[in-house]
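Two quick folds needed for the group meeting slides. Do the first one here.
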Amino acid sequence: MDIIPVLDIYKQKVVTAVEGNRHSYKPIVSSLYSTTDPKQIISTIKKRYKPSIIYIADLDAIIDNKVNTKIINDILIDFPEIKFWIDTGLNILKLKKRFMNYHSVFCTENSIGFDIDTNNKKKHVCSFDYKKRILGNVNLPRLLKYLPKKIILMDLEQVGSSKYANFKMLRKYIKYSSKYELYIAGGIKTTLDLNRAKSLGAKGVLVSSILKKDCLPRLLIQKRKNQPIN
């Protein structure tokens, strides 16, 4: 199972999520990092956990439509061995070249439906954003033939909260796991959560709080694809 660290970047700093309320995000405070600089934090995560994938949410792009083009270009150049899933809120990211380690995240939150169809040939990951229901003008069963292979089930109310992960949502959509790789995001706090997500059939999980608290066993995140969690 893939364990994917999440970084939220806002005003050139890594910030901490607060239940999906993006205007309430604050600069990250963690015993693991002595900085809020995105590249320095990625370097620390790389040395400690050796992840194969890192998820980046560009909140400047999502909130203010101002894409962090330079920061993201620099990250892709400096860490070619890591795959980056990058969410810019459907805003266009102007890259210096065609990076092999870049995958755009197409989120339903701002989607009007048909745009998933028009983006179906691009290399991207689709995030189904959830707040008591899937946000945006989308319906998973009706869009099956247009979706990419990797789908994130992201419960925004669980992100950065004290609430438990929304395994109910995973159970609802796991019937599609034979064709799609499903990832769960929001509320993953313990190794028990990791094991439960795996037992329910998730391809991977996105983690932030558990990483910030530095309570994620190194051996777990260093596992590569198709290797079981012990």
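Then this one, please, same format:
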Amino acid sequence: MQAEIEVKKSRFIARAAAAADRQAALQVVARAKRDFPDARHHCWAYLLGDPASASRAAAHDAGEPSGTAGRPILNVIQHKGVGDGVVVVSRYFGGVKLGAGGLVRAYSGAAEAAMSRLPLAQVRPVHSVALSLGFAKEQRLRHWAEQYGAALVQVDYGEQVMLYLDVPEDALDELDAFCAAEGVTRRQ
């Protein structure tokens, strides 16, 4: 998603996108540089992984005074609670110096404008589990899986049913309770 703001004749064009890894994030930055080759600055930030405990984050001021562009962009991403995302802001200088505070507000505002347009998807961490059970209990387990948002990955039939599920992390305690009550064995 893209948004543009103007502050004292300077244009700030912000682009927000999904990025699964550093390479994908830097590709978004490279594309902004190609799309706006005459912009004076291309400042950016990305945050990978769970936004509450990001595995990797980076920010770059791209020639602006230290801490006035990349870090404010990263702060917006963190405040929005978005992981696996990147924001790049391309600035066309309008001839009026904004000062450090003005730059922080402008880059934050541009990042906020682009992030507010970005369609978001909630990602729930899942765990793969293997369960061994009798044939009579299979339907009850399938019903449990549907109620708790677990995805059926594979079913193998033999002397017992081996059912493989991707279970949301927040439903693991309920799965353990179900298994204990129904006599279902959880395999590692």
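Slide caption for protein two: The beta strands are 2-7, 10-18, 41-48, 56-60, 85-92, 126-133, 151-157, 161-168, 185-187.
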